[in-house]
Each structure stands twice: as structure tokens, then as C-alpha cells.
Amino acid sequence: MQRLSRYLLLLVLAIPAWPRQAPAIEGGQAGAALVAEGQDFATQVLRDPWDMASLSDVSLYLNRSGQSYDTQNIQVSNGVFSAQSTGTADTNFSVLFPGIEGAIKAGKVGALYPITSAAYQCLYVAMQVEGGGSYAQVMWFENDQLNTGTWGVGEALLTTDSRWTVYFWDLSQAPGYGTGWTGRPAWQGLRIDPSNQANRNYAVDWVRLTDCDPVIHTVTWTPNGGVNAVWVQPQGTSRAILAKAGVNGSSGSTQLDVQGLEPGIYTVRLGTSAGCCTLNANNGDLTVNQAPIAEFVTPSFISGADYASQAGNTWDFADGADLVQSSGTSANIGGGQLELNTPSGPPPGGTDAQVWLNSPFDLSGGDYRYLVFRLSTEWIAPWPNAPQGMIGRWIWSIQGASGQPANRCYLVSHDIPLDLGWQTYVIDLHDAFNGVPEDTSVIDCPGQPAAWANTGSILDLRFDPNENITEDSDPITDGGPFHQRIDWFRLAAPDHVLRGTPYLVQIELNQPGSAVDSVNYYYTINRDNPTQSAAQRWTPSPPLGPYEVFVPLLSRGAGAVGGADTLPQADLSFWWDTDGVTANTYYLCAVISIDPNTATYCSAAPIVVQ
Description:
Blueprint (H helix, E strand, L loop, with lengths): L32 E4 L4 H6 L16 H4 L4 E7 L2 E6 L7 E4 L18 E2 L5 E8 L5 E7 L9 E3 L3 E2 L6 E6 L6 E2 L7 E2 L1 E5 L7 E10 L5 E5 L8 E6 L6 E5 L7 E5 L6 E9 L2 E6 L5 E4 L4 E5 L8 H4 L12 E5 L2 E5 L2 E6 L11 E4 L12 E9 L12 E9 L8 E5 L3 E2 L3 E8 L10 E2 L20 E4 L5 H4 L8 E11 L2 E3 L5 E7 L8 E7 L8 E2 L37 E5 L7 E11 L2 E6 L4 E3 L1
Parallel strand pairs: 1-21, 35-42
Antiparallel strand pairs: 2-3, 3-14, 4-13, 5-12, 6-10, 6-14, 7-8, 7-9, 7-13, 8-11, 15-18, 16-17, 16-19, 19-20, 19-21, 22-36, 23-26, 24-25, 25-34, 26-33, 27-31, 27-34, 28-29, 28-30, 28-33, 29-32, 36-39, 37-38, 37-40, 40-41, 40-42
């Protein structure tokens, strides 16, 4: 489609009155004190801690999606995000971004994963900022309207002169500006401004937003009046991070709340708030043990009946049969991926990159709800650029209104903003916004095309991976081609099970299933009440004869797909006995314990018990 989407990209204004004042750890290291990880929003809700392991922890809306040059020299290396402010003196990054206004919300955006303000109020940022006289602040936003809607700003904190420090904001306190954190039930955006000075280097090791429940480790040392601060040095690094100031060195001990530390092994050291260190703690190293992170394989957005699989050839790009044709982009299939290179074209539509997926039989939009795909996008800059074409579109065709067999009416979805790197995008096509076409091909289309969910006979399926116009319109760079890789597509029905039929619940963990001490399963109509009803384990009845075997009905969807390392794999499984379960739509939940951590997770997708 030769056109570019329209955006209202809101510039979050700098506040002129400043200031108002890793891999899972299994068991830890021998001899080290072992404590549980604190309850962290990104870990528990996003299932992806803000540990700076990849650029995706901060990339979405960097430089305001390419529209304002506030941050330069951006890189992520060895678990540290580093950058430099520009002359605007307004460098910032969002660990949670609401999503772009007027566009489909997909990926790990705040519109889909909002922060409950009553549950998470303690923000910790392990950061180093160059020089003195610089202030850091945190901002929050109710929705994608950003600062034209409801927003707030925390108290500005003076950053120490080039010292690594765990900075702490108590978000329950009165705001510096705007609406207080507790003034709204939930927030969709969380932004951090490391410095209000121009051309300042800074680095960030981790960001944690916790429930404020203390996790106490007692630190001991030989009494020393010259000590007034506790520092922690992550194993394998040379950086010591100031974790607690105001310590009485003569006492020989202090209680260190470690909820603000990311999981890892640390050497605990003693010194002053001005520098580290004069001695190490007497009681050895400290291991903050990573909590279990669980993803439900079944039920999930891809565990229901999949259109392409039912058509006989899953869209996994294992061969060329998945792709009918492409245009406007170079397309090559190899190694189980579709690789695309799209040059920049002129406005309004770029080069109109198109990928036509194999769709051998007509389908009903009412039968298939979830469009899920795994896509990587890269270009010349380390930030996304949605306004200049880093968007995707889902396009489907129906029979032309004239009834001529060869005629088609093409229905075009709203914009799907894309982030950098590998991302899994989930789009609910039965959503009142996502499933309503933004545009049509005009020719031979009905006056009021139906939404996806109400379209009875869909003929063709097409994905437009971008609308690149960066060489002509990008305000920061000279632009360039987009390099994209697509790993797989799924077009899936909601998962369901007949009441009384056993259902196989499967979970993927960040740790081996053998490490689990206990797991209890539940089902609920509301994920805010995860333990609403205990799920009963199904046990097969003894066979009636020597040759009779009961085989339970399995889900028709993907389930745990062996040999596909980018699809979820099952580490835990549980046969749910649905006999006696009232017909309804439920989420499955699990309370998982791996000493000393216990964590509760619910499936992102529901299952219908019929």
C-alpha cells in the first residue's frame, strides 16, 4: 500500500525547574550467603527483567522513536547499557513504554502490561553518571498520550560523581510534578532520565521496580570507624556499586535490604560513600538467587488450532512453500527464517514491501483470533523509527463486491510499530481496534467492510514488514535499508477443552524442571486472583482389560514443539482434570518454589472449558 501511517508522536517535555531538591543462578557459590530475589515487576509480569542483557530492555522509544536526538553513543555490552546525552540535555530511556498512540499495541508495551501502582512502589537503578552537578529523575505516564494525558515526575536525585550507585526512588512519596504514583491505579509508561546535563556519559547495570517487601541480608565486618558504606561487586566485574550509605562502621554489622539488587553473586565490601573499599565483609560472598520465571506453553496464544498447520504446512519458513510471493523487498529463505532487506523508498509508502503467506483454503476470521509472529528488525541506528516506516501491517482479502471471481477487496490493519532485535508480537484480531481495518483497497470493496472477527470468507493473507522512507524523511540519520528476519507466524484459534476431558498444562522455566521444589496449579477467571480454584490432577483409571488403554484428547494446537528452539519448550507438565469444572473461560496459574524463592504466574492466554 503506497502510503505511510499517520502518527501523533508526543515529545515528552524536559522539566525546566530541575531540581526540586543474567543467566539463572542455580544454588549460588559455595560459602556464599543465599537470599531470595525481591518481587520485581519486570521479572514477574513481563517475564523479562530489566537486566540490560539486550537493547530491547530500553530500545522502545529511544530518541522518541527517531524523532528527537537526545541520546547518542548507545550500546549494550556484558549486561550494561551505556550512552551519552546530547546537547539537548534531555537524555532518557523507557523501560516500559505505553505504545504509540493510534497504533496496534503488540510486544512488551505498557498498554498490555500496565504497572499496578499499589503493588510496585520501590524503584532501584544501578547507574554511573559522569561528572558532578547532574540530576536524575523518573517519569510515569497513564497511557499513550504521554504528557498530554495524566503523568507525574518523581523527586530529582543528585547523581554522585562517576560512582556506581544504586539510586532509589520511593514512588509512594509526593511527586515533584504532576500526578503522584498512587494517584492512579495503574501506569503504562515508566521513563528514566539519567542526567539533565549535556554531553554526559552514563551507564546502567539494572533497573528494578519492586513491591517494597524487604529482603534482608546481615553484613558483618571487623569494627572500623572509617567505614560508613556498603558496596557490592558483581562477580566477574571490576565495578563496585554503592548499595548503602550511612552505616555505623564501629558497630561491625548492618542490615542490607537486597530487593534492589538484581540476581547474581556479589562480593560485599566496606568503605565510605565517597569510594570503595577498605575491607571485605566477614561473612563471605552474597548470592541473590534468581526467582523462577515461567511461561505457559499450554495454554498460550499459539497453543490453539493453527491455520497454517491445519492447511498442511506450518509457517515456519523451513521451505519455500510457506511463501507465495514477495515484492518491494528482497526475500530469501534459509536456516528456518525468511530474510528481508528493504531499501528506503520515497514517501508516502516507501517501497511497499509485501510478503504473501501460503493460504490454500478460505478461512473465517471468527475461527482464528491470535496473530503471533517472531521478527527481528535492524537498521543504521540503535533505536527504532516508527514514523519513517518501522511498522508492519496485516492485510487480508475478501471477494470483491462485484462478485467477479478474480476481484479482491483488500483490508488493511492499523499500524503495528516494531522494535529493534528479536521480538515476539501478539495481536488479538478480535479486539475492537486491532481487528477493524484502517483502510481498504477501495476498488470493489463494500461500503462498510466487516471487522476480522466477523469476516466469513477470507481468501488471501499478506504481511507488509515495513514502509521504509528513512533516506528521505529521517530527522536524525541519512536513513538506510531495513534488515529483517521472520522466524515464524501463527494464526491461532483460542485454546479450548471439552469439560470432563483432561488437559495438558505445560510450562517453560528459566531453570531446569528438576530444580523445582514444589509447584501447585490453579485456574481462575481473573489473573489478579491467581489461586481462585485449585486445579485437580487427572489420574487415569485402571484399564478394564489387558488391551484397553485410555488416551486423553490432546489440544489441537502447537503445544511444546520439539526441535524448534524459538518456540516455548515444556519443562513442567500437569494433567488438569476438568471434570467438575464449570464451563467458562479460565486462566491457568502456578505457584512455583525453588528454594529460597516462590513465584506465582498465570497464563497470558485463556482457555475455554466448553
